[in-house]
Amino acid sequence: MSAKKFVSGQTFEKPVTVVARQATLELSADTVSIHKSGIEFRSPSPFKEWSEMVVSLQSPIDGTTLSANGVIVACSGSKHAGYHVSMLFTDLTPQAQNRLKVMARSPLGTI
After folding, report:
1. CATH top-level class of 8-104
2. Where do the structural domains in the chain lie, given as residue ranges?
3. Is the whole model's pTM more than 0.85, yes or no?
4. Considering 17, 52, 67, 70, which has the largest number of Cβ atoms within 10 A of its Cβ?
């Protein structure tokens, strides 16, 4: 599975929280795109590739929260322009995978 094989992403309306050992980010709607196997986001600071992280996502459909573990698979950019980070989710339960697929394909396009 590759970060390059994401399906069409959706953006978020509510903030998304990304937690790593070194940082906690509250990301705005225009900096996050959700996919069935992970997320992509813009960050003011870089993240080390292969770092493990935790992400909390809120569903636009029923308001439930999904917490997911993931691994940073790509981080590119600069301190002046910001960083584009790709994260692949790991160890999702079948129920969490189904909820994530629904969020990724949501016609609302917001989370």
Report:
1. mainly beta
2. 8-104
3. no
4. 70
